[in-house]
Amino acid sequence: MTDQSHGRVIAAHGRHYSVELPDGKLIKCYPRGKRNEAAVGDYVNLTMQGADEAALESIQERKNLLYRSDESRSKQFAANVDQLLIVVAVRPTFSDDLLGRALAGAWSAGITPIILLNKVDLLDGMPLALEKLQPFTQLGVQIVEVCAHQAASVDEKILPLLKGKTSILIGQSAMGKSTLLNSLVPDALAATQAHSVALDAGKHTTTSTRLYHLPAAGGDLIDSPGFQAFGLLHLDREDIERGFPEFATHRQTCRFYNCTHQHEPGCGVLTALAKGEIHATRHALYVRLLDAKSASDHRY
Ligand SMILES: Nc1nc2c(ncn2[C@@H]2O[C@H](COP(=O)(O)OP(=O)(O)O)[C@@H](O)[C@H]2O)c(=O)[nH]1
Ligand SMILES: [Mg+2]
Ligand SMILES: [Zn+2]
């Protein structure tokens, strides 16, 4: 009998991880040394230490890593993610800035973003919400209108999108993310408590990122705590540009190969902006991201 095994990280709790073994069993896992900073969704190699615990030896190669970073801390959201589901609501008003950042973070990591517009039953707020989403509609981002209170509509509209994929659900608070999660994963609360018992982690470890299986759809859904900030300081200038795919064709006509599309003469992006072919709010966000980046680069 060998004590080597492997599994997938289901949740991260500060010092230790919950890892699911190939047979579905959950174990408690401790990293060896400081270098093993595993994220939820990572596939990891283990050395079993008894039946219920293991040492995390190494992280298998990642397809991608969704990340955010602020001045004070950086945080790995999740690894090996196929799509990012961003929940916004008709009410309260969602932040265009956060939505734009989440999209840029997804595109720069090679992850497909999908916007879930929730609370479409609040009909009087729909025109404004759709107008705010207009720039993203133009970009070809899939926008799914849903009412989280109607389980049948959630199943019909969202489950097919999740089939066979690993998706991560994020949203500002009050957008209805928990309502959606409870509809998609009816036993989410029970699963969370089972994990806590199995891991002896205490009953109140509810704020961490966690991966759930979707038996009906045959995929996985990662729930991430509500976010109020989505810093992208870890992105370099090329990464930031990848977050604005609508610049791609226009930048080919920039006079300078290293054009930053802010003030340069002969800039194809600025020309498109002036013609209204690139949305002003999108270019403004791009400039904010570059400014925040250079401010932080000068600080360190
Ligand atoms: N009218 C309406 N209210 C909703 C819908 N989904 C969620 N809510 C309400 O919005 C509030 C916030 O929902 P919650 O799931 O806690 O949001 P979270 O903070 O994003 O997890 C709650 O009062 C929900 O009942 C919806 O589709 N329509
Ligand atoms: Mg919630
Ligand atoms: Zn340019």
UniProtKB/TrEMBL annotation:
HAMAP family xref list: GTPase_RsgA
InterPro entries registered for this protein in UniProt: G_CP_dom, NA-bd_OB-fold, P-loop_NTPase, Ribosome_biogen_GTPase_RsgA, RsgA_GTPase_dom, RsgA_N
Enzyme class: hydrolase
One of the record's GO cellular component terms: cytoplasm
Every EngC GTPase domain range: 79-228
The protein's Enzyme Commission number: 3.6.1.-
Species this chain originates from: Jezberella montanilacus
Gene Ontology MF annotations: GTP binding; GTPase activity; metal ion binding; rRNA binding
Domain annotation CP-type G: ranges: 63-230
Keywords assigned by UniProt, alphabetized: Cytoplasm, GTP-binding, Hydrolase, Metal-binding, Nucleotide-binding, Ribosome biogenesis, RNA-binding, rRNA-binding, Zinc
SUPFAM superfamilies (UniProt xref): Nucleic acid-binding proteins, P-loop containing nucleoside triphosphate hydrolases
Gene expressing this chain: rsgA
Any one GO biological process: ribosomal small subunit biogenesis
Binding note for cofactor: Binds 1 zinc ion per subunit.
Binding-site residues for GTP, renumbered to this chain: N118, K119, V120, D121, G171, Q172, S173, A174, M175, G176, K177, S178, T179
Role of this protein: One of several proteins that assist in the late maturation steps of the functional core of the 30S ribosomal subunit. Helps release RbfA from mature subunits. May play a role in the assembly of ribosomal proteins into the subunit. Circularly permuted GTPase that catalyzes slow GTP hydrolysis, GTPase activity is stimulated by the 30S ribosomal subunit.
Principal location class: cytoplasm
Pfam assignment, any one: RsgA_GTPase
Cofactor(s) this protein requires: Zn(2+)
Name of protein: Small ribosomal subunit biogenesis GTPase RsgA
